[in-house]
């Protein structure tokens, strides 16, 4: 997609990306049950996504990659580094501070960092969304400066790849190059799945929550402010929580349910603000 979407369509693209991202957590959990470490899962997520986008480029007969690489090689390397750091930081933080704290810091700090780095206004809806995320993700965790630093690094990696891919002329190729570089950084953690189920999960992980989601996200970034897109993308943990309830019979606490409602309201407010 080389054209700029209308605001409404850009919002739909970001929302669809967030919904697709929301299926990534449960898929990653199933892959760890297949015996892969979280970092090996991260490698296969990016590597398989790159393969899917190579296939997409072949089917759509897009222009050769080489001129695009030459025109922005540093940007693509940094974008891939951001993707790798986002994954490494998050999975490093989880065993040190817990899933809830890692999620709040990594996902919650990202839209704030994006807004500051892009010199965009910090809206009330953004802060309300982060507060809702805090309630939704609240779990008992431990205090670890290393874990907190890793979660902040994850947010910084997400911020970097978001800012570098604003207004990219070819979101498919930008995502492909970022995934390829990110997979190269994570290659030392690679391990082969032992079952066909593991390979099928990897194929899905690369296609829907990664290749499809990031391409839509980068497409929406061509129209929306980076901070708006990052705030709306906080729909991801709500989707993941809903899947946990429906597929894994998990239960949310009352504060978590309140947090989800607050988060959804804040995302709706941010979306309305983008249309005005």
Sheet with the most strands? none
Rough shape? Answer: globular
Overall SS class: mainly alpha
Proportion in helices: over 70%
| SS element count, helices | 13
Taken together, the total number of domains comes to 1
User: Which sequence of SSEs, written as H and E, runs from N to C?
Assistant: HHHHHHHHHHHHH
Could you tell me the number of beta strands? 0
Q: Cα-atom Rg, whole angstroms? A: 18 Å
Query: Strand portion, in percent?
Result: under 5%
Spans of at least 5 consecutive residues whose pLDDT stays below 50 are none
What is the averaged pLDDT score? Answer: 91
Give the termini separation: 24 Å
Task: Please give the structural blueprint.
Elements lengths: L6 H16 L1 H10 L4 H23 L4 H7 L1 H25 L1 H19 L6 H14 L7 H20 L6 H16 L9 H26 L4 H7 L2 H14 L5 H22 L1
